[in-house]
């Protein structure tokens, strides 16, 4: 019995996500008489697109929360501003028919580079005031939220710009393979390769830890966790294959998740970020340049906010001054629901991703059920509060 309880505790977030999905599926089928399903191929693809920006922003937000319990309230406004700049560069300026901007491909890559650089500069702006001047992050990013939203309105003159070029939209909204007739076969071949690589990777990592004398999960917990993950990957691939194939945006998300998970778990800077969140004074006495680390965390947040902006304008095929409204709350909520501690020093990239998916399933499921938008916000607020309460109570139990 204790083994089962320990296993459930170790994988509580994953189990909660599965239970919520099952409950929504039952409720949706009962309400629609089986005509609509949460797990229909088309709806599953929509969930990926609808939550792509949340996952990207949550990964950046996670590093701020882990590092010192900080958050960034401005990311929604940053998404709006960078989307506005992308719209001006890719839609408005080509109308001038200059030699440079009349070339769609050249203009597209130039605009992407400018947007990414702008995101980095915005992150550096926040990082300077927070890391070196030591102004509270809440104040700096709240000011940024107002500043960058105002600039987005100025850049776009209060109007929405569209449409973007087909070449740009294909970077984020296309599918692999391009031929829908081969979608299922190609998706399953790619999935088979991923499963093989994943199995070899987790086995190698476990054996390597055992060899070095590190503590590892019990075999029952190890198998339970990874069997669920592999089953989810295979089931997701079947649904994607039955629709249009693998969305390009999913490949971008996976690349970001893998890169940042590697940084967090396998690099010196990742270990230092955890140390900074655990105890900043101790980290500083150990030789960690805490100011620079905090500065770089905000630069990274600005970069990922720029990536999220580029994804959003492609998804909506427009740049709006009101884009990104509430995005910061979704990203913060995903991190805390995913197990990040409000005190810093605790959290994983995988947990943030699960938290983002959890939020996405809540949004999508309640929308299909026809739940009023106001009640949707209330439910998400209660879920977020519950996640933080669990974290605080766990901390108190450990201290006692």
TrEMBL record:
Family named by the database record: Belongs to the binding-protein-dependent transport system permease family. AraH/RbsC subfamily.
Function: Part of the binding-protein-dependent transport system for D-xylose. Probably responsible for the translocation of the substrate across the membrane.
Key words, A-Z: Cell inner membrane, Cell membrane, Membrane, Sugar transport, Transmembrane, Transmembrane helix, Transport
Pfam families: BPD_transp_2 (PF02653)
The protein's name in its UniProt record: Xylose transport system permease protein XylH
Chief site of localization: membrane
Protein topology in the membrane: Multi-pass membrane protein
Superkingdom per UniProt: Bacteria
TM annotation in the entry: 48-66, 73-93, 108-131, 138-164, 184-207, 219-240, 246-263, 293-316, 336-362
Subcellular locations according to the entry: Cell inner membrane
């Amino acid at each position: 019995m204790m083994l089962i309880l320990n296993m459930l505790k170790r994988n509580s977030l994953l189990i909660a996500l599965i239970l919520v999905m099952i409950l929504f599926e039952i409720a949706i089928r009962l309400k629609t008489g089986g005509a609509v399903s949460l797990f229909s191929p088309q709806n599953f693809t929509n969930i990926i697109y609808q939550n792509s920006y949340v996952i990207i922003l949550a990964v950046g937000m996670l590093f701020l929360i882990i590092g010192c319990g900080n958050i960034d309230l401005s990311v929604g406004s940053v998404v709006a501003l960078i989307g506005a700049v992308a719209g001006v560069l890719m839609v408005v300026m080509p109308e001038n028919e200059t030699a440079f901007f009349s070339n769609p491909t050249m203009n597209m890559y130039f605009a992407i580079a400018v947007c990414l650089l702008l995101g980095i500069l915005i992150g550096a702006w926040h990082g300077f005031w927070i890391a070196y001047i030591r102004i509270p992050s809440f104040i700096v990013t709240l000011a940024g939220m107002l500043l960058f939203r105002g600039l987005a309105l100025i850049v776009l003159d209060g109007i929405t710009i569209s449409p973007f070029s087909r070449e740009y939209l294909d970077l984020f909204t296309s599918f692999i393979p391009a031929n829908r007739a081969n979608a299922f076969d190609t998706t399953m071949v790619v999935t088979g390769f991923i499963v093989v690589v994943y199995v070899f990777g987790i086995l190698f990592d476990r054996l390597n830890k055992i060899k070095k004398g590190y503590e590892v999960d019990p075999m029952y917990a190890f198998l339970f966790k990874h069997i669920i993950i592999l089953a989810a990957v295979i089931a997701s691939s079947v649904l994607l294959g039955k629709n249009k194939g693998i969305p390009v945006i999913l490949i971008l998300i996976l690349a970001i998740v893998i890169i940042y998970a590697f940084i967090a778990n396998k690099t010196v800077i990742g270990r230092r970020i955890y140390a900074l969140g655990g105890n900043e004074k101790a980290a500083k006495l150990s030789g960690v340049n805490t100011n620079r680390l905090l500065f770089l965390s905000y630069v990274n947040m600005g970069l990922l906010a720029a990536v999220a902006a580029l994804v959003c304008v492609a998804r909506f095929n427009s740049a709006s001054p009101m884009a990104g409204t509430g995005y910061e709350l979704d990203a913060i909520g995903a991190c805390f629901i995913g197990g990040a501690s409000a005190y810093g020093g605790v959290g994983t990239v995988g947990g943030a991703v699960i938290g983002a998916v959890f939020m996405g399933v809540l949004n999508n499921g309640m929308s299909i059920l026809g739940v009023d938008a106001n009640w949707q916000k209330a439910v998400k607020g209660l879920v977020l509060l519950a996640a933080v309460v669990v974290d605080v109570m766990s901390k108190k139990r450990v201290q006692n």
